[in-house]
Amino acid sequence: MTEWGGVGAAYEASYASLCAETGDDLSAAFGRAGGRSLLDVGAGTGRLAARLATDGWQVTACEPEASMREIVAREHPRLRVVDGGLPELPFGDDAFDVVTANFVLNHVDDPRRCAGELARVARHAVAATIWSRSPSWFWADVRDRAVIDVPAPEQLPPEKDFVRTADGFGVMLTEGGWASVDVHEKTWTWWVDPAALWLSAEGGVAGAGRLYRGLDAAERHRFRAAFDTLCAELVVDGLVPLEHTAAIAVGR
Known about the structure:
Rossmann fold; 7 strands; 11 helices; alpha/beta; SAM-dependent_MTases_sf; methyltransferase; SAM-dependent methyltransferase; seven-stranded mixed beta sheet
């Protein structure tokens, strides 16, 4: 799985709010909570788990990264949080009524195996999301403007990878053992403070953060200058509007 070591604070200050935008869709997909149990796999800093808990779910947040779990404990002290993650979850078969994995399967080494593991611990329903159009387009523009030559990103082996579209996501989940898979897309605009967006890069979050941390001083200077220029072109009333699309899948 993609490395997220030590990035909890930077993630919480930046992309946590973006990723939690699927909360209403996931809640609607599962129907009334009625005190049923829900496992949120790859819970990050706990925003989605806390959102679902307010709907009456008995939520367990499962997160392997310590810096994320520390924020869950501090910001959402009523949540149960467990150290664990894909590809092997520390729970028995059918342990939870429903299971979620929000923007997790796009980071794992074996998506089908991990999809099957989510289904294994779900008694009634399972849901997952990936990016159809991710935040990477913004950072690719910054990189190109800064004239930074980087190697092609690592790809999964063809037999492990899948097409990162709604249809491709649905096919992969079916191959991973999900039944009655329904996938839809959600597109929205994330209005983000440039300072928060920069924290994600400087703090090492995701691909842009790993790229920035690997640059030398001159390259970092060009990268920051390109970032500031692009933000100045896009900013509206102090915020940068970035459009994203998620594929949201539910299996029964």
